Amino acid sequence: MKKQTAFQYLMIFSFFCIIFLCSCGGKYTREFSPKELVSENSMVKLSVDKVLFKKGNLRVWGTLENKTDQSIMLSYGSFKIKVLDTVYPGALRVPFVRVTKDFPLEPKMLKKLPGPIEALQVAPASRGSLILDIPGGSSVSVDFPMSE
Predict the structure, then answer these.
(1) How far is it, in rounded angstroms, from Cα 69 to Cα 141?
(2) pTM of the entire predicted model
(3) pLDDT in tens, 6-43
(4) Contacts of 32 (CB under 8 A, 6+ apart)
């Protein structure tokens, strides 16, 4: 048998290190569906359905309910995500949609958002908040855990 060179040992070691690091990648992904995370004011009821925190990106799925007798015009720019003391602009993540438009929330309507509100490069923390600014100066926010 031939003697193994130091370079060959280094290659074998690095191969196993890569395999180990790839298998540990799931530890930084947290996806769960919290229960009963609802906040409301006189106009809107906002609930968080699912949270995904993966590699510094935070995605929050939600449902909205218009409690008034008037149509409320909302935009996806109205959403913000707050983690620790930093407020991140929320962006709707919908596949194959290039332009995000305003959307009406009809009277007494319950509407699930078509995709998650996403914030990029978020620092890991135990809690976050989904904030919706409603036209007219009102806002509503829901606190949610970032891990189970």
Answers:
(1) 22
(2) 0.71
(3) 777 777 777 665 665 544 444 456 676 777 889 988 88
(4) 50, 51, 147, 148
The distance from CA 135 to its chain's CA centroid, rounded to whole angstroms, is 23
CA 117 to chain CA centroid, nearest Å: 5
Distance CA 76, CA 93 (A): 10
Complete domains list, the chain, with CATH: 29-145 (2.60.40.1240)
Pairing of strands 91-92, 37-40: unpaired
Q: Is 147 left (phi over 0), alpha (psi -120 to 50) or beta?
A: beta
- Please state, as a whole number, how many other Cβ atoms lie within 10 Å of the Cβ of residue 22: 9
Residues whose CB is less than 8 angstroms from the CB of residue 64 and which lie 6 or more positions away in sequence, other chains included: 44, 45, 46, 74, 105, 110, 111, 112, 113, 132
d(C-alpha 28, C-alpha 47), whole Å: 25
